[in-house]
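To: structure desk
From: M.T.
Subject: fold request, one chain
Message: Could you run this one when you get a chance? Sequence is below, nothing fancy, just the single chain.
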Amino acid sequence: MSIAGRIERLPWTSFHTKLLILLSLGEFFELYDLFVGGFVVQPIAKYFSVSAATAIYYNIAIFFLGAFVGSIAFSYIGDSLGRRTALILNIAIASVGLLLAPFSPNIYVLGLSRFITGLGVGPEALIVLDVMVTEFFPSTMRGRALAIGYTAAWTAPIVVAVIAYLLLPHKYALYGWQWLFIIGGLGILTILPFRFLIPESPRWLESKGRVEEAEEIVKKIESIAMKEKGSLSEPLQVQVVTSQKVKISELFSPMYRTRTIMLWIFEFLQTGVYYGFASLAPSVLYAKGFTLVHTLQYSMLIYTSYFLSSVASIFIIDSQKFDRKWQVAIVILLMGVAGLAFGFSVTPVEVVVTGFIFGFLSNIFSNAFHQYGAELYPTRVRAFADGVQYSLSRLGNYIWLSVLPLVLYGYGPVAMYTIVFIMSVIVALDVGILGPKASKIELETLSK
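Reply: Done. Structure tokens follow.
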């Protein structure tokens, strides 16, 4: 009886609920930081006497450059030293960067602190939520579990928007933008001790031949399940391949070559669509002529859609009629259309409605692709394979969030969102043609 086979037959228990809460806390602060960057662009530009495009580069783009490096480094750590080691180290680094940022003497030091933050925050969704949920939850509920975890975390944009609205127009000893970073850094320090309560992935331990350690963890989960749910069904017959070394060449073996190419193209381009709105919407509103206060008000309304979208995804993500492959391909195409409409919008009603529609589509897409990317490779290389393709999304973020603001301030919102729409078409074709189906397929079977 393999460890993976025993995990596959488990029902949802209090263990899974507690684990999901612990994992979601870290993801909350990743999303907090992703969205805080967009809100503080104008105040930072004014504080350091630089252009808005320069503020976006040093505050947001360089953050994603750090996330690119962090995703690769921590994915390798996750496969080599363990998921638990990676998720403790990465969040400690993120807190350092966030607490350094508000005290930067110039824009260049701010950029360095944002790079450090990205280094820690970058792999948070990858290692903590995507990989750990994929490996701890059975195939019948892993998609729903991931969607619930992200839904809890997606209260972050709403929290950021409210705090930004209350703090940015004012100065309380420090400027509002400085307080936004401090709140994020202190929040991460608060949850750091809880990371030590998260067990190592039994699937990872089994793939490394450390069966006794995996056995101990799974026995505890099974005892909770039997106490809460009664007797358990027979474990599934799951073949597990053990490996002590991460083989990079395996990503391009005949079995995984098409998936790797599909995911690399997808990850590099999808960020231009997703973050072309998520990180730049406040700057676009400001460029359209809305005041800072109105920009903050409209952003609060728009960003509530991300939470509602994640709630909706809970009921969609595991659907066999609407497979995760098509959730990714079709929804990002609709996002491209909504983004173009947002670019053309002029009145407050138009920007809020089109922005809300984009946000509502975004997390149906995002939750689906986070699960989709994590489940297409075997456990022995999952963190590394997922990390490499996910790091390309961070590299794409760095490039697109360096280029798109130049288009925005040089040619306007319509030109910028035309580029975003073209990227959405390419991504939809890429996944639609090359991607395999995934919903409710046993992990070890799907990732063979």
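Reply (cont.): The first strand starts at residue 171 and ends at 172. Let me know if you need anything else for the meeting.
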